[in-house]
Write a structure and sequence with these properties.
The complex is a heterodimer of chains A (789) and B (348). Chain A has 789 residues and is an alpha+beta fold. Chain A has six domains: 67 residues, Phenylalanyl-tRNA Synthetase, Chain B, domain 1 (2-Layer Sandwich), CATH 3.30.56; 110 residues, OB fold (Dihydrolipoamide Acetyltransferase, E2P), CATH 2.40.50; 200 residues, Phenylalanyl-tRNA Synthetase, Chain B, domain 3 (3-Layer(bba) Sandwich), CATH 3.50.40.10; 66 residues, Phenylalanyl-tRNA Synthetase, Chain B, domain 1; 189 residues, BirA Bifunctional Protein, domain 2; 88 residues, Ferrodoxin-fold anticodon-binding domain (Alpha-Beta Plaits, 2-Layer Sandwich). Helices cover 25% and strands 29% of the residues of chain A. Chain A contains 19 helices and 43 strands. Chain A has a seven-stranded mixed beta sheet with strand order 28-32-33-39-38-37-36, with helices on both faces. In chain A, strands 3, 4, 5, 6, 9 and 10 form a six-stranded antiparallel beta sheet that branches. In chain A, strands 12, 14, 15, 22, 23 and 24 form a six-stranded mixed beta sheet that branches. Chain B has 348 residues and is α+β, with helices and mostly antiparallel strands. Chain B has two domains: 91 residues; 231 residues, BirA Bifunctional Protein, domain 2, CATH 3.30.930.10. In chain B, β6 and β7 form a beta hairpin. In chain B, α1 packs parallel to α4 and α2 packs antiparallel against α4. The two termini of chain B are 83 Å apart. The chains are: A alpha+beta (789), B alpha+beta (348). Chains A and B meet through α8, α11, α13, α14 and β28 of A and α5, β1, β4, β5 and α8 of B.
């Protein structure tokens, strides 16, 4: 909302020393922020001059050399405008003048000295949309009454200031000069001046010849008034100036008056050429795919949710948004029907969001005061009579289902103070309501406040508390802490510990976007889950909610690799999303990716499968799942290497996958893991309980078996464990050798076995008996031999 | 007299022998030379039987003392050799301590996680529970029950990613308010915070379509705007430093009444005025207010009995300030060179 301070001062006597900057900052303090505050015309050193001589430039076919009298001196100025001529009054920018686009200096143009510039209006910073063609193509020619040496901005009535407010959506009442006047009046304790609304009515009552039929619940109020014999011409200056300062282009007196009154009252109006109507206006919901050509000459296709104004069978206006072309006011229009109505704010919002945002729709969306609908009609008649020589026909067609009762709210001083956490003096509370022009009835500990209908945003006592707060000043609140019972606070420590463990294992935590490319969704899934897509993604890049986090980590890998970073060890924890049986599901997931190499002092290691497996084991062991999980080769997603990947199984249930990426999917050596944290944590762990430590010494034995490469180590471990019985306490694999010293289809697996008895010291003989049994059992079972026997 | 001369000769000879001794082996040979079967001292003691029995006792004493003296000297020499040998051994083991250590792979915790953990710790210490709501939310919880019915103009300011008519990606963490209050079947006082990802169809340069919010809600008897201010002062000081002040400006949100915009002392200039704060000395960081009675009522709380406050800042900007991040996109880009800088404990 652009507020012209000139317009504001029409209704509010604000002392001169209250500048527009002060108004802007005071309004901010009470919750009305502004985007910008400035003079309408930002230009210095302008003066009215008279062209007393005008000759062609000796060295140009379009430039003129003029002598301009500015009162104090006569300046030679070279001018390129086609409309310059001797005897006209002009706007002169003297040397040193600062205009929005340029600074004026003494200069020489094609050998002729030029001491200033004759200005066009747009050169002063006035948007071209407000100007006639002649004003755009040439310099501004002032009227004969312009006094040489005076301020041209003041002469043109453009000596205005504009504060562009960014209002909150509840303050529809401030989308009017009257609303602004009440609000700013409350700031400076000033009363709003009455509006001129008088006019003469003539002729038969309109109700005998004109009908309004409302056929929708979405229009609670519709007023129609007839005005005859209007004379279409240019608007008086004060209307044009105020429209321009408010950001609306002047057109002609009739159209301008409808906009002017909307600005004053906040009530959007629509004028119909009465002779194009069948003596009736119908308000109804549109039919699906009904067509309508609006004022801007666009054909609009409507939905059944739009509200239209019709005459006969034909829609002639899109209610609350824009009128129709067929019934618009033209140069030939004589008689007018003025519409002042209220439409359902939600319906208007839906329509305008789909079709067009306008000054009118913005106001309908925020809600209107029915009293203003009547006021606006009266103000229109007053202005049309004065500035369009109109005759106002007797009577008003009224369809009105609105309630206009003032809202009465009871509130205690105690409640105000308790909610604000302040002690606002009693008199101050009353004074604030009075400044806002609310009626106040004082009771013992309470107030009965009557809120005028213009304040549609106020309906409960909390709203009144806010009024007290913002005018008393929220800066007066001194911070306290809530007085509440002591209790411990809870948070999910496990999630936090998982992240910190992963970081301590050498991985960098990432945070990436949940929305990914649709094509990436199925990656790393064997039975692809049903995806969740957003209805209107901003880009295809971010259209689908991820289930696996690995596509994101791969994108991070690519990003870094493109920047020459090859050693990458990262993880991310976040929700994965999918649908199942029509329900949307999300579960906490963890993914990690390692690639490249890592240095340990002077040795460089290339990451391999066992690095990612070590990370998995360290994490799961840390979380208390030691010995409860294993890797099982199953059907792996095609993104995974078939012989270097596996599913992670915990308590018989698959919770994730681990391994190398399939080179056909990604040619670099990349190792990943991903687990469902949700599935993992569904398995409860026991707390730490210290195991007894044997009082008797242990005996260690080493043994290596040369076995076929195909035999997985864990099978040997299983057999050793079975064979060793309960005195065998620990089995550690300490070497896995393949190479020249043994057959090429064999590997040597070396084990360190720890024997111990909790009851007595073991003898060598006892241990050897078990040890030899283990060797025999393993050799027999796997058809293998002890190495170097 | 004769004995004294004997002793003197032997000791002098021993002292001289000891000066050339280098190793433990040399020392053993020397020991044999004096105390062995044919050693100097042994030879002297064999003279004992030639002596007059009355002199034997004294001679025995002399011999014993001499033997002790020799042993002592040998022992001292032995210790010297040992310490010299140890010194030589240690000297050989000398290393360059300026070479780099053998380190584990280094990982790091993302700056947003750090900010969230810091805030969680602050609020948990004051008895708030940390909760996490779903990111796929119902329109009901995200808007309607927060006093934003269908068609409400304030819905525009949160352009939302819808999934279908009823479900959406939460555009703020405020549905956590609804969920917590509805889950509290006894309708008791409560205090919670909810950190998490939120999503908006926002495509200008300074906004990301996904960012982090940190919702807070307190419901109880006589909870006031002053309590909100005190709480947010703690919040701001924790993240932005002890000198940070908090300013309330009246505003409008459908879920709170009264509502306010909350400004903090500009973190760039400390309040003096600069380009970041547009010379005001203040930076707007969040919206907050007293919970609207409709919101309490819709979740089963009696607004006549209880009041509450709620706040919901986006916290990406706090991370940017705290860690000097100049471009918000860095937070979600995950450049390794950026992430690696978070591999250490921050100052308290």
């Amino acid at each position: 909302m652009k507020l012209s301070t000139k317009f504001l001062r029409d209704y509010l006597d604000i002392p001169k020393d209250i500048t527009y900057e002060k108004i802007a900052s005071d309004m901010t303090r009470i919750g009305n922020e502004y985007d910008s505050a400035s003079k309408l015309i930002n230009a210095t050193d302008l003066v009215i001059g008279e062209v007393i001589d005008c000759k062609m430039h000796p060295d140009s076919d379009h430039l003129h050399v003029t002598i301009v009298d500015i009162g104090t001196e006569k300046l030679q100025i070279v001018c390129g405008a086609p409309n310059v001529s001797k005897g006209i009054k002009v706007i002169v920018a003297k040397p040193g003048a600062v205009l929005p686009e340029i600074t004026i200096k003494k200069t020489v143009i094609r050998g002729v000295e030029s001491n200033g510039m004759l200005c066009a209006l747009f050169e002063l910073g006035l948007d071209k949309k407000y100007l006639h063609e002649s004003d755009i193509n040439g310099i501004c020619i002032l009227g004969d009454d312009a006094k040489v040496g005076c301020d041209p901005i003041k002469y043109l009535g453009l000596d205005d200031e504009v504060i562009d407010f960014e209002l909150t959506s509840n303050r529809g009442d401030l989308l009017s000069i009257l609303g602004m006047s009440y609000e700013i009046g409350a700031l400076y304790n000033k009363n709003v001046k009455p509006m001129e609304t008088s006019y003469q009515e003539m002729g038969d009552d309109i109700n005998s010849s004109f009908q309004v039929k409302v056929k929708t619940p979405d229009c609670p109020l519709f007023l129609a008034k007839k005005v005859n014999n209007v004379e279409i011409k240019e608007s008086p200056d004060f209307i044009k100036e105020r429209l321009i300062a408010s950001g609306i282009r002047p057109i002609n007196n009739v159209v301008d008056i409808s906009n002017f009154v909307m600005l004053e009252t906040g009530q959007p109006l629509h004028f119909y050429d009465a002779d194009t109507l069948n003596n009736e206006l119908i308000v109804r919901n549109s039919k699906k795919d009904e067509k309508l050509v609006t004022l801007d000459k666009n054909e609009r296709t409507l939905s059944s949710d739009d509200i239209v104004i019709a005459t006969g069978n034909k829609a002639i206006g899109l209610a609350g948004v824009m009128g129709g072309l067929e019934t618009e006011i033209t140069e030939q229009t004589k008689n007018i029907i003025i519409e002042s109505a209220i439409f359902d704010s939600i319906k208007i919002r839906m329509t305008s969001k789909r079709i067009l945002r306008s000054e009118a729709s913005n106001r309908f969306e925020k809600g209107l005061d029915p009293k203003r609908s009547y006021l606006a009609i009266e103000r229109c008649c007053n202005l049309l009579e004065k500035y369009a020589n109109a005759t106002i026909q007797t009577g008003l067609v009224v369809y009105d289902k609105t309630k206009k009762d003032d809202k009465i709210i009871d509130i205690t001083f105690d409640k105000i103070n308790k909610v604000l956490g302040l002690i606002v003096p009693r008199e101050e509370v009353i004074n604030i309501f009075k400044k806002l022009q609310f009626q106040v009835e004082e009771k013992k500990d309470a107030l009965r406040v009557t809120v005028p209908s213009r304040r549609i945003d106020i309906s409960i006592k909390e709203d009144l508390i806010e009024e007290v707060g913002r005018f008393y000043g929220l800066e007066n609140i001194i911070g306290t802490l809530p007085t509440v019972p002591l209790k411990p606070g809870k948070f999910n420590k496990t999630y936090r510990e998982i992240k910190h463990k992963m970081a301590s294992l050498g991985l960098n935590e990432c945070l990436s976007y949940t929305l990914i490319k649709e094509s990436e969704f199925p990656y790393f899934q064997v039975n692809v889950k049903e995806k969740i897509k957003v209805l209107s993604p901003m880009t295809e890049e971010h259209s689908t909610l991820r289930y696996s986090l690995l596509p994101s980590l791969l994108n991070i890998y690519d990003y870094n690799k493109a920047r020459g970073i090859n050693d990458i060890h990262i993880f991310e924890m976040g929700n994965g999303f999918y649908q199942e049986n029509g329900e949307y599901k999300e579960e906490m997931r963890l993914a990690a990716l390692i690639a490249g190499e890592y240095k340990n002092q002077f040795t460089t290691f290339k990451f391999n499968f066992y690095d990612i497996k070590g990370i998995l084991e360290d994490l799961l062991d840390y979380l208390g799942y030691h010995d409860r999980y294993q890797l099982e080769v199953g059907t792996m997603p095609k993104e995974m290497h078939p012989y270097q990947s596996a599913n992670i199984i915990l308590n018989g249930r698959e919770i994730g996958l681990i391994g190398k990426l399939n080179p056909s999917f990604k040619k670099d050596d990349i190792y990943v893991l991903e687990i469902s944290i949700k599935a993992l944590l569904e398995n409860k762990c026991k707390g730490i309980q210290v195991a007894e430590i044997s009082k008797y010494p242990s005996i260690l034995k080493d043994v290596a078996f040369v076995v076929s490469k195909d035999i997985p180590a864990n099978l040997l471990v299983k057999e050793i464990k079975r064979s060793g019985g309960k005195l065998l306490k620990e089995i550690e694999i300490f070497d896995n050798y393949e190479g020249e010293k043994i057959d090429s289809d064999k590997k040597s697996l070396a084990f360190k076995l720890t024997f111990n008895d909790f009851k007595k010291t073991l003898t060598d003989d006892e241990v050897m008996t078990i040890f030899n049994k283990i060797i025999t059992d393993v050799e027999n079972k796997f058809k293998c031999q002890v190495r170097d026997k | 007299m004769e004995k004294d001369i004997q002793r003197k000769d032997i000791i002098e000879k021993l002292d001289s022998d000891l000066t050339v001794i280098k190793t433990k082996n040399d020392l053993a040979s020397l020991k044999a030379l004096y105390l062995g079967k044919t050693g100097v001292i042994t030879n002297l003691s064999s003279k004992m039987k030639e002596l007059d029995p009355s002199d034997r006792k004294e001679y025995g004493k002399f011999l014993n003392e001499l033997k002790m003296e020799v042993l002592e000297k040998l022992e001292t020499a032995s210790k010297e050799i040992e310490s010299r040998e140890l010194e030589e051994k240690l000297n050989k083991e000398k290393i360059d301590i300026t070479l780099p250590g053998r380190k584990h792979l280094k990982g790091s915790i993302h700056p947003m996680t750090r900010i969230i953990e810091e805030l969680e710790d602050l609020f948990v210490s004051m008895g708030y529970d940390v909760i996490s709501g779903p990111e796929v939310e119902t329109d009901m919880n995200c808007f309607t029950k927060l006093n934003l019915p269908v068609g409400h103009p304030a819905r525009d300011s949160q352009d939302t990613f819808y999934i279908d008519n009823d479900y959406l990606l939460r555009s703020h963490t405020s549905p956590a308010q609804v969920r917590t209050m509805e889950a509290n079947t006894l309708k008791e006082p409560l205090r919670i915070v909810c950190p998490g990802k939120v999503y908006r169809r926002d495509d200008d340069a300074t906004h990301s379509h996904q960012f982090m919010q940190f919702e807070g809600l307190v419901v109880g008897e006589n909870i006031s705007l002053a309590d909100l201010k005190g709480t947010l002062e703690l919040f701001a000081k924790k993240l932005l430093g002890e000198k940070t002040n908090v300013r309330f400006r009246p505003s409008y949100f459908p879920f709170t009444e009264p509502s306010c915009e909350v400004d903090v002392t500009c973190f760039k200039c400390g309040g003096k005025g600069c380009s970041l704060c547009k010379q005001t000395g203040w930076i707007e960081v969040l919206g907050a207010g007293v919970v609207h009675p409709n919101v309490l009522r819709m979740s089963g709380y009696d607004p006549e009995k209880y009041t509450g406050f709620a706040f919901g800042p986006g916290i990406d900007r706090f991370a940017m300030f705290k860690y000097g991040i100049t471009d918000i996109r860095q937070i979600y880009t995950n450049d390794i060179r950026f992430l690696e800088q978070f591999d250490r404990k921050d100052v308290e």
